[in-house]
Structures are given as structure tokens and as C-alpha cells.
Amino acid sequence: MTVRRARRTQLTNARGFTLVELVIDVPAPLMRFTTSFLLVFLLVIWIVLLLRLIQIRRDLVPLAKLQQATRRISLGQFQTRETITSGDEFEELASWFNSMAEQN
Fold it and tell me: Beta strands 18-20 and 24-27: pairing type?
């Protein structure tokens, strides 16, 4: 089965004569594949964006904890310590933060 998708492209000369006309025939299975591919592609993009959003929110939790601890220290609460066990740069930053707080 063939789905006829006519797309007409015409070039006319100065006298008004048609020089080119193009008609494209697209097989039905190709049309179904194209539709399915686009739907799957959009679904995958949506899933990737959702997972990335979850990852970003998870990464911001230690930063929010350090921000709160910094506010407490700025208010003179030098006994403030923050424990972060994320296993990344935020954990190292919290360690240095606690070292600085001990010096006061």
C-alpha cells in the first residue's frame, strides 16, 4: 500500500511555463515508522529531561545544607557543623567548612 503525498514544486520561467513538477510517493510502512520513531524519540527526550531534573535536585541538597550552615555561622553560631556524606566535592567542601568553623 502506498500513501500518496503530493508535494508540488514548480519553477516557472518568464513566460509562465511550468519547468519542474515533483510528486513524492511514500510507502505506508515508512509513514508508520516515521510516526513511531517520532513518538519514541519524544518519549525518550521526556524521560531524559525528567531524570536530569531529579539528578539536579539531588545535587542541590548538600549545597542547601551548606548554605544554611553558613547563615548560622554568620549569625555567630560558631559551633555549627555540617555532615554531608555524598562522596563528592560537596562532602569535601563540608569537611573544609567544618575545619574553618573549628578555628573560631
Answer: unpaired
d(CA 84, CA 62): 7
Domain interval for residue 92:
2-102
As for how many domains the chain has, the answer is 1
Q: Other C-beta atoms within 10 Å of 97: how many?
A: 20
**C-beta of residue 85 within 8 angstroms of C-beta of residue 91:** yes
- Reported in sequence order, the residue ranges of the chain that DSSP labels E, i.e. its strands, are 2-5, 11-12, 18-20, 24-27
Tell me: the pLDDT tens digits for 40-64?
Answer: 999 999 999 999 999 999 888 888 8
More confident residue, 87 or 48: 48
Whether 100 and 73 have beta carbons less than 8 Å apart is answered as no
Rg (CA), the chain: 31
Count of beta carbons in the 10 Å neighbourhood of residue 84: 20
Largest CA distance in the chain: 91
